[in-house]
Write a structure and sequence with these properties.
Helix content is about 35%, strand content about 15%. It has helices spanning about 70-80, 90-100, 120-130, 140-145, 190-200, 200-205, 205-215, 220-225, 235-245, 250-265, 305-320, 330-335, 335-350, 355, 365-375; strands at about 80-85, 105, 110-115, 135, 155-160, 170-175, 180-185, 185-190, 270-275, 280-290, 295-300, 325-330. Strand 10 and strand 11 (about 295-300) form a beta hairpin. The relative contact order is 0.06.
Length: about 375
């Protein structure tokens, strides 16, 4: 009897799972890199008011030769000059830039970009970072205040501190009265009045003519500056030159013309008198006080095309305003002084002589006036 194999039992079904479905665990979020504060907003305030935390340090490649961006931006906004004491948080960066030759310490604490080391204006800006009480004087002060065409041979600095020799600078121990100092952009600069009399030994009457022509000071201001600077070598010459400038000339030719007029006994006049003609303002070189005679001193610059056209317009308007204009050149003043005076007298004689002439007797002759040219 054969036995058949037993049939397999059917699988018991699994009990249903009524639990809520499981959700996959969220991946941990990668922390975002902190946003870097922009550099530019910090620059809208004055550089010297930066807080130490205003600049965030950014890692820079070692010995990369690339200036730190904070210093680079500061230099861009300050004209290539920067002071160490205003930014103590960048001390190590300054040291790196100095070692790399990207910055140059022209004065202790005053740094200049290497491309501006030969620029006297950058050197002048650095003075304040070295000594806030130091005063820029001499040619540098003249170039900054009223003689922009002048290029100083060095930046002259008056200070109470001792200062070793520095390339591009000339230091002198000197105390300057506060009323003779002008503040400009944080720097202290000698006033135009003091600067002019300081430079008289070097430039003579030219510097006085230029500062008067710039209208940044007056003859009275220069006399006051001289009074506050007593006991200096050369003050006698300065005093005589200021006396010679009592007519307030704007050029050497005008100065000579003033001497000739005074020597010829013609005293009732004023120099560089403003007049408005047809809405345009002009300055007459020499205008007689009580008659319409005007004396104009023409230099070679009047031969330029623009000046030539300007003079024609100016002359016509003065004529329409009732002025009688006489024109003289430097050569006429030097070579024919008698003729110049005679011509002015003839013009004045067309009007009441006792009114137009400053009838005081001439205190000097034309010969002595010409001798003054050499002085």
């Amino acid at each position: 009897m054969s036995v058949s194999a037993a049939a397999p039992r059917p699988a018991t079904p699994a009990a249903p799972d009524y639990s809520p479905p499981r959700r996959a665990a969220p991946r941990p979020a990668t922390p975002a890199a902190p946003r870097r504060a922009p550099l530019l907003p910090c620059l809208v305030v004055e550089l010297s008011t930066f807080a130490p935390t205003c600049w965030r340090e950014r890692p820079a490649a070692r010995d990369s030769g690339t200036m730190h961006p904070a210093i680079s931006e500061l230099l861009g906004y300050s004209g290539g000059v920067i002071g160490r004491r205003a930014h103590p948080e960048l001390a190590t960066r300054f040291d790196s830039a100095l070692r790399a030759g990207e910055l140059v310490a022209v004065l202790p604490g005053g740094y200049v970009h290497r491309d501006r080391v030969s620029d006297w204006r950058a050197l002048a800006d650095a003075v304040w970072w070295w000594d806030p009480r130091a005063v820029i004087v001499g040619e540098s002060a003249a170039a900054l205040m009223f003689w922009p065409e002048l290029t100083p041979r060095s930046v002259e600095v008056a200070t109470r501190r001792g200062a070793a020799g520095r390339a591009g600078f000339a230091f002198t121990r000197r105390s300057i009265p506060a009323e003779l100092v002008v503040q400009r952009g944080g720097a202290q600069i000698a006033s135009p009045a003091l600067t002019a009399i300081d430079l008289v030994p070097r430039y003579g009457g030219e510097v006085i003519d230029r500062v008067l022509r710039s209208r940044t000071t007056t003859l009275a201001d220069m006399q006051r500056a001289l009074a506050l600077s007593g006991g200096r070598r050369g003050n006698k010459d300065r005093r005589l030159l200021l006396l010679d400038s009592r007519g307030e000339p704007w050029s050497a030719a005008e100065r000579l013309a003033h001497r000739l007029l005074r020597a010829g006994g013609i005293n009732a006049w004023h120099a560089n008198v403003p007049i408005v003609c047809d809405g345009q303002k002009f300055f007459m070189d020499i205008a007689m006080d009580h008659c319409p005679v005007v004396v104009e001193i023409d230099g070679k610059d009047h031969l330029r095309e623009d000046m030539f056209e300007y003079d024609r317009t100016r002359g016509n308007l003065l004529l329409l305003a009732g002025k009688q204009v006489l024109h003289f050149t430097w050569r006429m003043l030097v070579d024919e002084p008698e003729w110049v005076i005679a011509t002015v007298r003839r013009a004045i004689d067309r009007y009441p002589a006792d009114v137009c002439l400053g009838l005081g007797a001439a205190k000097s002759t034309l010969t002595s006036a010409m001798q003054g040219v050499a002085r």
